[in-house]
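May I ask for an example protein's residues together with how it folds?

___
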Amino acid sequence: MCVCVCVLLKIRSLIGEQTIEWTDMIARQMEEQYVLSREHLQLQMQMFQTLMQTMQEQQLKDLDLKHERYTPLRSNCPRHYYLCDYFS
């Protein structure tokens, strides 16, 4: 009977150790996943900001070109013709 109790105590302590190791591993994996997700999100934000700045610069250039193209026509055309051409 003493042998059975000793074996059961060893099994119980082994299960306790494995449970602690398992819990620590899950906690580490969750922390790593959080860190990776945060870094991925930050990289996406940086890429998105760069893309949006580039697009805004291009839109401003396009707007300037459109303005330069239609500004001389403004003095020669009635207002409604100018607006129709400008927004087409």
Summary: The first helix runs from residue 2 to 74. The radius of gyration is 35 Å. The chain has a mean pLDDT of 85.
